[in-house]
Amino acid sequence: MKTPMTCLAAAVTLGALVVGQAHAQNLIITDARIIVGPGQVIERGSLEVKDGRIAAVTPGPSKPAKGMTVVKGDGMTLIAGYIDTHRHLIQGRGPEAVADFMAKNAADRMRELLESGVTTVQSGGDDNAGILDLKRKIESGQIKGPRIVASGQVPTFRLKDEAAVREAVRKVVADGADSIAEVHYPEMVWPFNPTVQETKNLTAGITEAAKLGVDFQVHAVSDQSLTGAVHMGAKKLIHSVNINFVSAGQAKEVAAAGAMVASITGFGSPNFDVFSKDNKPKFRDGKPWPEGIVDSQGVGQEAGYMPVNLRTLHDNGVSIAYATDTTFFAPAALAHELKTLSLVFSVPDLVEILGPNSAKFLNKGNDLGSLDVGKLADILVLGGNPYDGFWYFLNPVVVIKGGQIVVDKRGQPDAGKPIVRYGY
Q1: 74-89 in b/e burial notation, b at 16+ Cβ within 10 A?
Q2: Which of the four CATH numbers 1.10.1740.110, 3.30.565.10, 3.40.190.290, 3.20.20.140 does domain 82-361 have?
Q3: Mean pLDDT of the 198-223 span
Q4: Can you tell me whether residue 172 is helix, strand or coil?
Q5: What pLDDT was estimated at residue 70?
Q6: What is the pLDDT of residues 214-250, one digit of tens each?
Q7: Under 8 Å between Cβ of 334 and 87
Q8: What is the pTM of this model?
Q9: C-alpha–C-alpha distance, residues 351 and 39, integer Å
Q10: Greater model confidence, 57 or 13
């Protein structure tokens, strides 16, 4: 189902646009298929960008205003930039580890995220000071990367009591954290037997964060931890359940509470050709699969539990967001997560998961997640039509973030083709 792109430069003309320009550009993309959002596809239309936001989306041809740069999108598909709601961005903790990452890896890792199509990403329990520094460097232009939602870590199960939890929540928020993430409940995930104190601590953390207007996101990896966290007031849950099947009744409890779940289905299924070329299944950190799967019984049943549980949640009214919870090569992580999600979700479902649901998960639905007028101009130019197969979500030709072109692969031999080169 591949569509050859034998003359990419002729198909997309970006004129004088320069990758990495300091300011948002006023431009118009013409003659492109536009996936505005779930169920909204314009087969041939135009999209205008002014001052970093989407100014118009119209079917058919559109006459550009004077001085506006024209992008010819013949044969291309436009879609909103992807949002990863939970990914580990910095390797290691502490000043030395953060300094080493910034000096050696930060620029490449952030570039890879953009090249995969991720224009917004929430950090997942990284070094508290380090992630705020990385966010500042991207916002100031020192590093080119996706928009970062910086989460702080508050390990409730390790803290003495509720007062200590509330103090820790106040500190990370005062330091600048946008959310609190990577909170496991319970510490020993299975069998489900949380202590009275860690349950009290989690409740205190959720309540204190709500007072401060930030999300307190819980890792809930069993069916019982899922409903237990929801009963304590958790509204944002990280991780598809990988221990036990979620019942329809449990899913309805989650939906009734208005809680959302971030996907991470690729956690359970094996990787190939990411960490080695030996054709042996690997867990997401390169350890052998299935025995290397953390927080599990290590026999591989997680690969079945996770997509089925997400579908059960979805079918009972729970909104599913996109997340990888990985550190490895970003284009490969996207491919792996979408491949696993596609077992149980259609392409229209994936459009909703990658866009509006993930924007809502991060409380950014007014600005991100679709190509509606008024939203930030985070736009991907894809080489094919994802409705012909989920693999056309991969390998965008051009990535626009906030009206600025940050990736431009025009003229490259494989630009826009549904392939991914794994490894660093």
Answers
A1: ebbbbbbbbbbbbbbb
A2: 3.20.20.140
A3: 95
A4: helix
A5: 82
A6: 999 999 999 999 999 999 999 999 999 999 999 999 9
A7: no
A8: 0.92
A9: 9
A10: 57
> Residues of 96-111 as b/e, b for ≥16 C-beta within 10 angstroms?
eebeebbeeebeebbb
Q: Report the 3 state secondary structure along 180-242.
A: EEEEECCCCCCCCCCCHHHHHHHHHHHHHHHHHCCCEEEECCEHHHHHHHHHCCCCEEECCCC
Q: Measuring CA to CA, which residue among 24, 22, 45 is closest to residue 33?
A: 45
Domain residue extents for the chain: 8-80+370-408, 82-361
Give the per-residue pLDDT at 276: 87
- Matching CATH number, 8-80+370-408, of 3.40.50.300, 2.130.10.10, 3.30.70.1620, 2.30.40.10: 2.30.40.10
Distance of alpha carbon 107 from alpha carbon 414, whole angstroms: 23
The tokens describing 88, both together, are 């580990």
8-80+370-408 and 82-361 have identical folds: no
Q: What is the mean pLDDT of residues 13-24?
A: 41
* 190 pLDDT tier (thresholds 50, 70, 90): confident
Cβ(214)–Cβ(208) below 8 Å: no
When comparing pLDDT for 18 and 77, which is higher? 77
The predicted pLDDT at position 65 comes to 79
Please give the pLDDT value at position 11: 35
Is it the case that residue 14 has pLDDT exceeding 80?
A: no
Q: Any idea how long the chain is?
A: 424
Instruction: Return the residue matching tokens 């000043």.
Output: 95
- Please name every residue paired with 230 in a beta bridge, in sequence order, or none if there are none: none
Tokens 């491949």, residue located: 339
- Give, in order, the Cα–Cα distances in Å from 222 to each of 50, 198, 263, 351: 46, 16, 14, 27
Burial class (CB in 10 A: 0-12, 13-18, 19+), 335: buried
- Note if the bond before 290 is cis, omega within 30 degrees: yes
